[in-house]
Structures are given as C-alpha cells and as structure tokens.
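worker-3 :: picked Maestro heat like repeat family member 5/pseudo
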Amino acid sequence: MDKQRLEKSHRHTTADRAPSALSQNPRPAKLQARTSGSPGGDPNTLLPTGALASPCFRRSPSCRIPSHIFESNTRAPQDSAHRDRQVHPATIVLRKSQSSQAALVPKEHKMFMEEAYNAAICFKMLRDLNSADSLRMKYIIKKIKNMAQGAPNLVLETIHDYFVDNMEISTRHKFRLFHVLEAVIGAIDSLEETWEKTFIELALENMTKSTDLEEVYQDAASNVLVAICRHSWRAVAQHLETEVLTGVFPHRSLLYVMGILTSNKQIFNNGEKACWEEQLAQMAIKSVQFLNTDVWSKELLWALSRPDRTHQEQPPEKAFLFLYFGLILQAEENSNTVRRHLLALLETSHQWPKQREGIALAVGLAAARHLDQVWAILEQFGRSTPIKWSLHSCSPKNSEDLRWKWASSTILLAYGQVAVRAKAHILPWVDNILSRMIYFFHYSSWDETLKESFLTAVLMLARAISRNEGAHSYEFSQTSELLESLMVLLDKEPPDSLCTLTRQQTIHIMSSICKLRPPPDPEKKSRLLSTCLRSVLALPLLDVLEKHTCLYLEPPDIQALYNKTSEALDQMLQSFIIQNPTADELHLLLSHLYVWLASEKAHERQRAVHSCKTLLEFLNRNICLDPKEDFKRIGQLVGMLGILCQDPDKATQGSSLEGVGHLYQLLIRQRGMSSQVEAQTPKQSSQPGADEASLWSSGDQKTTPPTPQEMVTPKDSISQLSSSQVIKEVMKHLTMAELTDFLWTAIDGLGSASPFRVQAAADMLLAAVQEHGATLETVANLGRAIHLQLCSVRIPQARENVLLAVTLLARNHTPELVAAFLDFSISLDSHAFQLWRALGAERSGSRLVLAILLAWLRERPLPAQATDSSPPPKEETCLRSLAAMNTLRQLQGTQEFKKAMQEAYPMLLLALLTQMHYVLELDLPRGPWPGQEAQEAAAPSPQGASLEALKSLLSTTGHWQDFAHLELQGAWDHFTAIHTYPQGVGLLARAMVQNRCVQIKAVASQLLPNLLSKEERERKVSMLILVEFLYSPALLEVLPEQTALVVLARSLRDSSPEIRVLSLEGMGNILFHPAKGILLRRQLPPFLNGFFQNSEPVVVRIMGTVSDVLHRLGAHGAGAQSLGIAVKTRSFFDDERDGIRAAAMALFGDLVEAMAGRELSSLRTQVHQSMVPLLLHLQDRCPDVVTQARFAFYRCTVLLRWRLQHTTFCTLAWERGLSARHFLWTRLMTRSQEEFSIHLAQALSYLHSRQHHMKTWAVLFIGYTICCHPQAVSRMVNSVDRNLLLCTFEDLKKAPEPGLREFATRQLSFIQEVAAKPH
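worker-3 :: tokens ->
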C-alpha cells in the first residue's frame, strides 16, 4: 500500500511542460508589496490568466496525513493559531534574496511587476496555509504547483524565504509547507544543485525532530527528501549512508526514506535501481560490525518487533528494516552470529501478516549465503515447544497464544523465501523444503492465513524451480504429496464465492509442478483434473458471485477474476497436452470434461464447452499430436458437442459449433484428407444474424462479440453449416469404433433430464442410423441401451425419432435386435412393447421378426436331470424362449403384426401349443417370471402367459368360434397340468373341426413336418391334432386317406408310448372303417335305456358314452335316433341330481353340434323347447350345470342361426348382470310368435321349481316379458297362472336384494292393472 501511495503522489510527469520566460530570469531585488483585501481573499485577482491553468490536484497519500491536520479550526490549539496571526503583519516584507543584485539590471517594467506580483501571491498563499481547511489547502497547493511549472526558482525561493524569515510558525504550518514543497519539487522538471543542497539540509534537519505531530511531521519532511531523489538520488543516498553508518541505530525517518527508495521503482530511471541496490548491499556489509554492538542490535530487534500502527499495512521503514537486516545477515561471515540473530527474530511475535512476511524475507536473504545455517535454524524453530503447541491448539486464550498461533505460516513463508534466494543451489533442497511445507500445511490449524501462506510459499518455490535450467532433468520425490496438498486446498475453497486469486494461483502451481519429473501417474492426474474442473466450472453464475462481494469496501472485479481463473484452467489443459502429446492424454483430458458437458446447469455447460473448444483450438493451431497416432473415443466428443449445438444457451451453441469445426480440422489433418476437404468446403459467405449479440452475452460471457471476419475463416468454414449438417459431415470421417461411440453418446443423452438434450440426442441417433445403419456393429447392445433410456424420453417428437431409428436398424439387423429385445421381454413393459412395434413397422420387417421369434420359441432346452450326463442348457436360451412366447402374446393385437400373425397362424398355433407343453415340462413355480421383481408379480406366470398367448392368437386372428368353444366349456384348465394337457389340445382341435375352421388345411400341412421332429413334444401335439382332424372332410384335401394311414402307422413305432397310443386311436377312426358307424348306432338304444338307472355315476357315465359315440360317428351322425336322444336328454334337465343335469346338458349340446347342417324339423322343436330351461339353469346352484348349460345354449343359438353370435358368446361367457339377462331375453323372445308361446309356458312351469335361484330367474324372465308384451301375456296366462304369478311376486318382495324388491313391487302393480282391464 505504501508503494501505491508513493506511485500516486508522483503520477504527474513534467516531460511535456514548456518552461516560461520567468524561469530563465533571476530573482529581482528586495521586493516590498502590500496586499489588498482580507487574508482570506482570492489571490486569483493578482495573477495573470495564464498562471491559473493547472491539472487536477491529487494529494499524495504517501505522507499518511490524518485528515484532521488539514482542518485549521479543529483539534488545533487556539494559542498556536493566535500566535500565527500575530506573526504576519498586513505588510509583507521580503528578505533580500540571492538574486537581489539582478534587480539593478534594467528590466522592462511589465516583467518586473509580474514577477513581483507572483512572488507576493505565492507568499500570501503560503501564509494562508495555516488557516485553510483541507479543501482550501488542496486548492492552494494546486495554484502553487501551477506557478512552479512556470517559475520554479521563484516559487522555491519564496518557500525557502518563508521558512527562514518565519521561524516562529507552528508545527502544523511547517507540516503543510513541507507538503507544498514536496508537491512543487515533484512538479518541476529539474532542480538546481543549490536548491537541492538547501532542501536536503532542510529535510534532514526536520525529519528527525520530535513534535506534537509525531511521525506525521517527520514523514512530511522525509517526503521532501524522497521528492529530491527524483532529481538526484545519489546525493540523497550519500547523505543517508552517512547518517546510517554513524554507529548509532538510524532514526526511523532515515529508514522511511530508504524504504520508499527501495519499494518505489518510479523514482529511478533505467539502470539506476540496480545501482541503488548495489549501494544498499555495500551499506549492509559496512553495517555488519554493528551486529555485535549490544545497543545497536537490541534497538534493531525492538524496531523489528514493535507493533505497527495499522496491522494491515506495514510502514516503509519497517519493511525496509527487514530487508536491510536480511542483507546484513547475508553479509555476516560468522555463522553463529547469523544463527543467534535469526533465532531471536523468529522468537518475536507472529501475529500480524506483515510481520510474518518481513521475518520470512530476512530469513530468505540470510539463506542466500548461509543456507545450511538457515535450514538448521528453521528445523530447530519448527520443532520448538511453542510451534508444537500452535499446531495442536485451535483456540488461543491470551495474547501470548496469539503471538505463536500463526508461527507455522511464518515458517512456510520463510521456506518460500529460502527457495527464492537460494537460486542455483535450490534443486538439492527442493524435496526437503517441500516435505516441511507439506508437514506444516497438513498439521497446522486451517484458516485463511495458513492457506495464503502455503500458497505464497509454494508459488515462490515453483518460480525458483522454473528459473533453474536444470530443473527438468532433476527428479523430485515430494511433488506427488504437494499435488495432494494443493488439491486439498482447492477442495476447501468456498464453492459459492470467488473473491481471491487462490484458484488461479493454485492451478498455475499445479500446472508447473506437473512439468517436473517424475510426472504424476494417470490416477493422480485424473483426480487433479477432477478437482480443478469442479473448483472452477461448478462456481455459481457471475451475478451470484457478485452478490457475495456486496459488503466489500473494494469489491473485486468478478468478471476479470473469473476470466483469469478460467484462463489458468485452460492453460493447465494445454500444458498437459504439450508435455504428453498423445491420443491417450487427449482422451484423459476430454473424459473429465464430458461430465461437465453433460451438466444440467446451463452455465456449467457453457464453461465446459468453452474450455473444450479452447483445447481443440490449441491443438488445431499447434499441431502437437502425432499424425500416426489415431484419436481415442473421439466419437463420444462429437456426440457431446453435437448435442450442445442445440443448447438453448446461444454462447454454448456457438462454442460447440466452433469446437466441432476445430475437431473436424483435426480429424482430416490426422487422417491425411486435407485436400479432399478443401475441395468439398462450402464457399458461401456467412450472414451475421440477429442472434450474434446474444450469442456472446449470455451466462458468463460479458465480452464483445467477434466480428464476422473473426468468426468465419477458411479453416473453420464448416461452421457455416447448420449443426445437423456439421455432425453429418464429421460422421463421414469417423471409424466404425468412433461411430459406435457416437451412437452410445446419443443413446446416453436420451436419459437426460434436459428436454433439449433428449431431442438433440434423438435427432443425432436417427441421423446416424439413416446414414450408417447398414454398416453398424454391436447393434444388439445398442438396442438394449435404447430400451433402458426410452423410459426417460417423454418428448413425443424425440420418442418418435428413436422408434424410427429402431425401424431403420431392423432393415439390416433384425436378428440381433430381436435377440437383444428378448432379453428384456420376459415381462414386457410399455417401452419394450413400443420397441417391438417399431421393429415390425414395415411389412417385410414384421414377417421377419415373427419368423425369428418362432425360431427362438423352438429353442426349448430342458433342465438336466441329476442322472443326466449331458451339459446343462444355457439359462439365457431358456429365458429367451419364454420371452419369445410372451412377446408373441403381446404383439398379436398390434396393427403392425396383424397381417403377419394371420399369415403365420398355422405355425403359431402349433408353436404355442408346443410351448405350453414345454412350460409344463419345466414345472416352474406358478408365480412371477424368472428374474421378475416382486412388484411386477401382477403379470401372468409362465404357465399363464403361454395360455394367454394361445387365447390371444385365437381371438385376434378371427378364430373366436374356436375360442368360444373352449371358453364356454371351461376347457382352458386342461392346459394347466401335464396330465390334462392332451385333453385340452384335443378339445381345441375338435372345436376347429366342428366350426369348420378355414385354417384346417394349412394347419394340417404343418403337421407332417412336425411329426418328424426330434422333439417329442412337437410330435405329441401334432398327433393330438391329427387324430381330431380325421373327422374333418377338409383334411383329405391335404392328406389323402392312404397317406394318413401311412403317417399313423409310422407313428406306431414312435419312442413315446403316448404317441403310439394316439396313433392307434387314430387308425380306429371311422374314416378308415365306414362299417363302424352301423355298429355304433346299434349300441345307442341300450345306452338310452340306461339313462333311467338309479345310480347317478352310472347314468353320468352312460351319457358320457353316448356323447363319445356321437363324436366317433363324426359326419355320419346318429340319424333318426337323434330325436329320441334329444327327448330323453331334455327330460333330465331338471333332475334333482347335479351330475345328471350337467351330463344331460352336455350330451344335448354334443347332439346339437353333431346334427349341425342336417338337422330335422323335429329336432329344431326340441332345441326351441330347451332354450328356456338352459337359460334358467344359468342360475343353477351347481357350477358344472351352469357351465354345461351355457355351452349347450350357445350351441343351440348357432344351430338356430341367431344374429350377433359374437355378442351372444361374450354375454354368456363374461356378463352376469341385468344387462346380460335383458340381452338374452330379447334375443330369445323376439324370434317368432310360436317360440314366444313355448318360452313363456316353460317359464311359467319353473315357478314351481324347488330351487330358489331358478324360481327367481323365471320370475324375472316373465317380468321382462310382461313389461314388453303385456297383451300377449294376458291372452296366454289363465287365472291359475295369474294367481301363481301374484303369489310369486309377493314372495319376491321379501327378497334381500333391494333391486329385486323394487322390481317385484312394480311387476305386482302392473299385473294387477292388466288383470283389472276387460279382455
């Protein structure tokens, strides 16, 4: 600060001032002049106009003058002011001057009068200084300086005369006169030797005086001496040397002047500073003798340890004294003397910063000649008891504790000074110095003082090493530990503020240390990079940083501070690549930037991409990489920059695009394609847009935007393209591995929380696949990664682009993608489902996907048995087979696969039936899928999924009649156990035959290859279906009778007993034995007579046998016996035995099915008469009866050709409410009048039923009929039936269900109204 004050005080130069004519004339003879006006009058009235012009006055702060000294009416003794007024009469008498003889020379009157006026005015202004306030004093000084520039001798002589003629003036007045004299000497161009000697004597005389103003007065006199030094420093230095070397400890004012001379470089011209330093060194040599003088050395130590007036700033005399003391110790020959004085110095207080710096400076200067002794003293002091105490004490309790609290900081600074002063001898000492620095850094109490001292010391050491030519060939052992300490220091910096140069200095030091040998290992360098990048890039926005400085008296320039810190970071990255210009090093640097390029905070991305761009620009400009060495993972960088080209922040966009341009140039240069690129480079000129200003004004960017000429050059003309075009152009020059990295980067960007990153990543992914999809590798892994990220893509356009990319990939990589997608399709989520749909978005792709899924479905390895020596199957294959089954189940209802599913129906049917058998063989637990999480247990088990796949296939491909047969029979349960599985397959095949399925021929065509399969389960399934298909006439169109016999005969030799039994059963089919039909019909009458047996199980078995006979008769049918079977079977619909009711309804349904297409009119009557009983038995108490009633009712509706067959089936299968009752009633009662009568009569008969549910259902049925056809009912119902209805509805009013009670009440009222009307 003192140096700054002195610099400010001499800011005005006089090189361009033109001396006036007055300066060339000698002073006139004794002049008497009487002034007019009061003492406070304005002297401007007596001056020529030209004498008033002057530059703006600036008071020199080097005088350190308290403000109250310039106030004449405050804190000044009244008697002093009164005495000053008495000394100055109204008439000003000027002493005879040295130039009085010149007055005798004739002069022009005008010039003489002008000089006289100026002298008088100057004298008056000097007198007025005493009573002037601070503002008036500044004005007076400015006027006198103006006069001095025109007439320096006149002003100097007037000031001198004032001192000599007015010896009684006050100390305050003299102080102000010295201040004026300093300003005048500093303002003139040259100082005559006479005045030089005169004022040197005047200054020396007053600078050691003791006054009431104390040191302020002495400093004012000393500043006059400093001002004279600007004209003749050697004369002043000679006087100073004489005074210092008297043997008496120098007065503080002498040290003050020497301190100013040492610290202020502006005092000396070129080369003079070195001369002063040499003279100072000689003075130190001559002062060595005083070290052994007890009084002198004690006064020296007292002066060094004396507390300063302000602890933030050290007075020049004390700063110089530390320097001078160090020079003396440096010159001392006796090492013991050096040790004694250094130890005494170190034992002084270390409480204040300037004191610690001064001690360190003295120690460092002594080390320039006594390095060993200084090292020993520092070691001894560092291990002393006070130092050990300060290391372990965090809270000082008294002033003595404060004295030692920061002693470790002094030691750190001392080590730094030792490194600086040791110069060429420093290298062998570096490791020792570093070890001690690191020790005190880690074991001292952490605070800002320790941090600043450590950083300053290390910075001095680093500079000392860098100045040594042999440093790069020297190997250091402590650099690694030093880097660790610097990283700790950076980590302890406040993450939300930037007020100092600590970060910048630390990064510079790290960069310098990394240049030394040995270089840091990759792990250490990686941590160093992470620490530095986090410390700089993670800082808040500059506006936020500025808010943290709002309470500072002099807040720092945050923009400039951050720019310097960021520049230091960029220089470190560039330094690393210069030291190790390899692709590995570049990859290491970029990999640490990737984290910040992907940051969710805009300002962090902006900073990171700027550093990345700067590094690429440096590489592009310096060409330091080996052309033979290819880049590593450069595709990742292209992807990161490509995403940031669409960043909302304009500055980030610009830097990213510029970075891609530099990267493009590096690629083409590295791969020897410069000539090609120059030929392809677009030659369009850049049109600056409206966004250019904002491009450079967002975030941390507060600089002016570059001109278009700066932004667009031939070298980076690629930046004229749009971001998508740039990326496509760069992709052309990427290798396959780099292109894969690019894709991985794009896929990783899909998982970002930033919408722009997701959209940009999706766009890049699509562009890459469009351009290079056919040649890509590792597509399976890419597909898995896309699935993982797809759940994060919530932007519709981005999701659409990703799915389109998958569709394009499927053109050339369907097998890989299907295999990959199966890995996450065991339990198919919505995102996986969308990916499968994308795979089949194209017609050819859907067929191929389906074919591959079927191939995977056939990969069905079984777990190895304990006794089996074969290797166990791969779990992956097993899971993929199950996943293929689940995927087929989900895709059957999609629009993309609808056509392909219909075309592949025969293969799918056989494959899924075989898969169900395989799942049953695995005997998996009936819980979640293998590997499925507990929270996903709602999804069907493998057994359930295989069954659902079959159901979905039937229902989505138009085979709902087959589905209905199995659903209404409850036949699906047969597929859930291995022992009932054949029955389920048989029922399905039988349903296809009975419904005359159009796919029978296509399925039959697939049976023959499957019967030759190596898998037993495939042969078994095919044989089960073939046995049932023998009853279909369509089979013979594909498989002639003789061929069928050959196939069955061959299967008799199958290794599976089940298949042999099925083959034998098939060979007994009526197709091959037509006479068998007559034999079976002859057995029907005895079986019908058996219906009336008393044993329920016997009757049930007989009815089942009749059903089996009807099935075996096939197309031949029962003929005329059908009517008898129908009549006898219907009579058991209301049997009290549940089993017989169920068997009777099942038999009736089989009979209806057997007679389909050739029914008799009498049989149709039986069907009509069975409809109401079957409908009412839907509410039977026995579940088996309900099932058989439902299926028989459905078969009857098919025979009667009801419309809305599918709706009827759905109602029967799943509807249970009033809506189902109403629909079935409507379909039944609106057929014809004849049927209406039959149905109403049957419903009335059920009012006598003993089953409450049946009776209730009949009442509801009749109630619906009365509501819709009241007149028809009234004509058909007699009085007995009417009374029965009334009684029934009265009973129904007591039903527990509120709905039934309300319905009964309304119906009862309605019936009474109808009965009351005349017919």
